[in-house]
Amino acid sequence: MEEAMELRDLRAFVTLSDVLHFSQAAERLHITQSALSKQIKRLEQALGGALLARSAGATTLTPLGRALLDEARDIVRRSEQLPLTAQDVLAGNRGLLRVGFGVATNRLVPATVARFRRERPLVNIELHDLSTHHQILALSENRLDLGFCRLPAPRGWYAMPVVQAHFVAVLPADYPPVHALDELAAYPLAMLRRDRAPSFYDNLMHYLAQSGLRFQRLHYLNDFAAGIATAAAGIAWTILPSSTLVDHPAVRVLPLTEPAACWTIGLVCPAAPTTPLLQEFCRTVAEFSEIR
């Protein structure tokens, strides 16, 4: 029956290979020469061949010993690193964090992550640009750890409000002066396709329905940048989240701030964060939150 290989035996082999002297190796390991000899013999039995040869007071590596030394040294090194890695993980200083976000947090999230990475460079952070609908689905399926989603979150979930957002109307610059949404009813409207951002689309449709207005000439967009370009070209006006950077000389922006046009984004996960990594990330997010 094959002998089980033990880590302490590998460590003994590596130490002995460094000095090629049983007495010195035993001293380094704080064991007797007899105990060291037993460890080497047990390892040789487990591996199926001699690792060292002793003759005329000299100790040398056998061909098998030379072939296995680098790998044995690597195993010992990694075993010594393991407790340090565990301490980092338990302290929230190492690990993987999968975070979902959307356009409403395209300023807060980069600032938060940059700070967090400076403080914890061993944490690997994956950012996923997803709508609230797709974030909730990914969180439910454990494909994300945290998400920046439109509130309210699903019942029973953890949620920390972080950003207040609202709609803005982006108009071609050559439109007549406009002060309210109903003044735009006669102009063509460009809207993001529902499959691109289901939550945004549904909330926008709810808002427009509450306004009582009907827009007959609609253009559908694949992203918010296309909406700005469409307005700049004079084709149609559009409605975007307030967090969208609109910086184009050929458009004007009309903020829409009535209650139905406003919403809150929160940091969301299915249960209250319990691991140090999640707790520390939430703490950093709270420092950047627009909501106190």
UniProtKB/TrEMBL annotation:
Pfam families: HTH_1 (PF00126), LysR_substrate (PF03466)
Gene Ontology CC entries for this record: protein-DNA complex
Gene Ontology molecular function, alphabetical: DNA binding; DNA-binding transcription factor activity
Record keywords: DNA-binding, Transcription, Transcription regulation
All residue ranges annotated as the HTH lysR-type domain in the record: 5-62
PROSITE patterns named in the record: HTH_LYSR (PS50931)
Family stated for the protein in its record: Belongs to the LysR transcriptional regulatory family.
Protein name, as recorded: Transcriptional regulator
